[in-house]
Amino acid sequence: MEEAMKNVRLHVTKFVSGLLFGLALATGGSAAAAETVKFCFDWLPTSGDTPVLAAQKFGWFAEEGIELKITPGGEYDQVLSVGLGEHDMTVGPGPSVLFGHQQDLPVISVGVTQPFSPAGLICRPDRGLDADDPTTLAGVKVGIQPDSSYNTIWESYRDHYDLKGKVVEIPVGWDPIVMFTGQVDCFPDFLSLVPAMAAEEFGEPAVTYWTSAAQKTIGQNLITNDTFAAEHPDLVRGFVRAYARGMQWALRNTAEAVDLFLEVHPDFERSVMEIEAPALQSFWVSSVQEAEGLLFQNDQTWQPTHDILSTYGYIKKPIDVSLVYTTEFLPNPPIMP
């Protein structure tokens, strides 16, 4: 596992090189007639990338007249990058869209990829914690990421269970090695890849807490620049449709989606990805998307997150949530899960 983690940290460039090579093959002869869309992934590769990989593999972006110019994810603010026009589209956190509107950043969500945030705490299994009783966290060392837009989810969860001052909060980076080596007992991340890595590391399942469960805060979104959407509505609409087709395929063919991911990122362990993929997919669809189609969003999708961010002072003045998203570019007819 440590070697696999080292590969994740040190060989992102190799991953991206393989990805771009695969994309060049996938786009084939259609590239000359296609228009370029500059897209950036979110952070390190996960199975959340498979909608894009599938849409490339099966030619769905090409059918929409799109050739993707892809930038790998990393330690930069991809939502800010889209707002500044450096990229046209990305997948990024819903809270960052709200922060952007507070700062007059011209970004808008064109589809919700995670109606509920998969953010949570992943904890060592040897600390006597009870996943059904958050109060057992009292006294443990909890890693926090103060600069993350998801930190407010932890704060609201902590306060809901009267844990403020009862846990030891330690600022950490983005590498779960701090949990594996015992520097912290619990690490904040999505309840998908890191739990799978932890199970591999410890030889038994980690103890996990879904910190956004009670508040139903939003997760990731498809995000574009206001100007790009206004000037290239067909490209945005085509991207969203191709992405939704990729989501549908991955949901209906999870094993094949894992195969596709590992074709592009062979340094990941299959045993980890076979756990991570279905775990992450479970956050792609709520009852709303089951009824309205993939990527559908409305005011109720956004309001709980807005309210929590306001309560904890991350948003200084109220935002009309209807202004941070649009349904204009969703597939019609809808693409169902």
- Gyration radius (Cα, Å) is 19 Å
Named CATH topology of the largest domain: D-Maltodextrin-Binding Protein, domain 2
Strand order of the largest sheet: 2-1-3-10-4
Helix content: 40-55%
CATH top level assignment of the largest domain:
Alpha Beta
Low-confidence stretches: 1-32
Main sheet attributes: strand count, strand direction, barrel closure: 5 strands, mixed
- Amount of beta strand: 5-15%
| Average pLDDT, all residues | 90
What's the helix count? 15
- General shape: globular
CATH superfamily of the largest domain: Periplasmic binding protein-like II
Distance between the termini: 33 Å
- SSE topology string: HHEHHEHEHEEEHEHEHEEHHHHHH
CATH architecture of the largest domain: 3-Layer(aba) Sandwich
State the total count of DSSP E strands.
Answer: 10
Secondary structure category? alpha/beta
User: How many domain regions?
Assistant: 2
Pathway: Cofactor biosynthesis; thiamine diphosphate biosynthesis
Pfam family, one: NMT1
Keywords: Iron, Metal-binding, Pyridoxal phosphate, Thiamine biosynthesis, Transferase
GO molecular function: metal ion binding; transferase activity
Record keyword descriptors for this entry.
337 residues; disordered N terminus; single chain; globular; D-Maltodextrin-Binding Protein, domain 2; 2 domains
